[in-house]
Amino acid sequence: MQKSEALEYWKKIVCYEIYPSSFQDANGDGFGDLKGIANRLDYLESLGVGCIWMTPVYASPMRDNGYDVSDFYKINPQYGTMEDMDELLAKAREHHIVVMMDLVFNHVSKEHPWFLESQKSRDNSKSDWFIWKDPKPDGSPPNNWRGIFGGSAWTWNAARGQYYLHTFGDFQPDLNWENPEVRKALYDIANFWIGKGVGAFRIDAIVYIKKPKDFADGKPDASDGMVLIHDMTANTDGILDFLREFKTNVWKNKNVFTVAEANGIRPEELKNWVGENGVFDMLFEFNHLQGGDIWFKAKKLSMLDIKMAIVRSQMATAENGWYPIFWENHDKPRSISANFSNAADPVLAGKALLTLLLTLRGTPFVYQGEEIGMTNVNWDSIDAYNELNSRSQYELARREGFGADEAIRFVQAFSRDNARTPMQWDSSANAGFTCGKPWLALNENYPQINVQKEEGDPESVLAWFRRLSKFREKSEVLLNGDFQILLADDERIFAYKRTFRGKSLTILVNFSEADAFYNKSLLGDATLLFSNYGDAKKSHLHPLEANIFSADG
Ligand code: GLC
What we know:
Residues 17-420 form the Glycosyl hydrolase family 13 catalytic domain. With 553 residues, the chain is α/β, with parallel strands linked by helices. It contains 16 helices and 22 strands.
């Protein structure tokens, strides 16, 4: 039950995720940059965006596109300079937009000076800043954990004669959070950015920072005799002590809000993680707080599974906490392609998904291009893909005996490049993203799907996004209202009611590509506010139809 209408500001805004390499290039080198982002603030403000989350822009060798930081106090020259960053912060303020930085604190690049020092010997000022272990007597890695990007989670270092641990790639050594000097160095970094005017943090891979006491072998989960590292290290006992200290030293009593990437947190643990006594304000939990991983198409989820997963996260955060609503991010495929068949009408599908994004209870996180209905790329050769995980998953699939066709279909469905192709601004060469050679190929549908074209079309996905985001901003019911699921067992319709102080909104989305019917008594004398079909019948939903009805009571 919502206590009062005096919501914190971050519960009322729409957040917009920017993938800086692909948003807007201002200097023609083919990579997006900070100046490019600053040049697009008018557009972002016009969308009703109150916060932009930029994936990491720190100095980095870019092996994992910035999630491998070599200096947290410097801007990657590819993105610009510290002056550009200061200018972006100042301009964003003028547009009433808060800047959210990404804190990558589970690991650094192996080119970070901390690691360069640490690897030299067992006796140096940073020797205990990473997780080093001796080999097993036969020289093999300390245990059978597999890194998230494939291969052993341990890499041998000859100078030290030891292995180091990495949750992700071998170029991303994990920091040793047990060492208080490490923790202090990280808090100093976050405070430096708060000092610069950053108003929010997205905190990367934070559930992995506390390793279990025992580094023994885990029970193998695949034919390679290995076990996924995150099954062994996520959300380990004692992690909350670190996180409470982190909060106390960084954002407690400051006007800064936080959203942590925290997979595996269960509803009953939420109270320690978010809300009044929690460590963060929101969590990106890809499993929807045990509702299910809605992106994992391989699990062959039905529409009902996806709906119920989302309902689980709505219910789990009803009493405590607040949910960041999202369909897309830089690690996931495009939502239209992930949820609907190729034959589906992408404009209707885009509007249906955005209706849910902007009317569920929580803070919507829209990902660049989602507001215009961008789709997956479906490249048919592995050579077209840039992203390291796509390539390693492809090789793994081939090694496991899958044919080239099957392996590429898997990559097409999951590749993180689907979301990373350049933003589609207009129909000119390279979609107005760059006047140089884009670092990653554009989606060839940009002449049809782009901002400029959609600006001029009242029936576009973009026009729909604007209407709903403006409406949400002023709707007490959407901001404050309770969430109640309707037609829970319906396999096509995703329907719910939001209620606040005697007023309600009923949202009905046909989450399928076939007609759907319901009993019109569900709506009583409620009046239609929005429909992506223009008009609406109480009792029948066309394929992918999305309606919002309003009523007193
Ligand atoms: C997070 C990021 C992802 C990155 C990984 C390692 O999951 O979202 O892009 O590869 O962390 O930092």
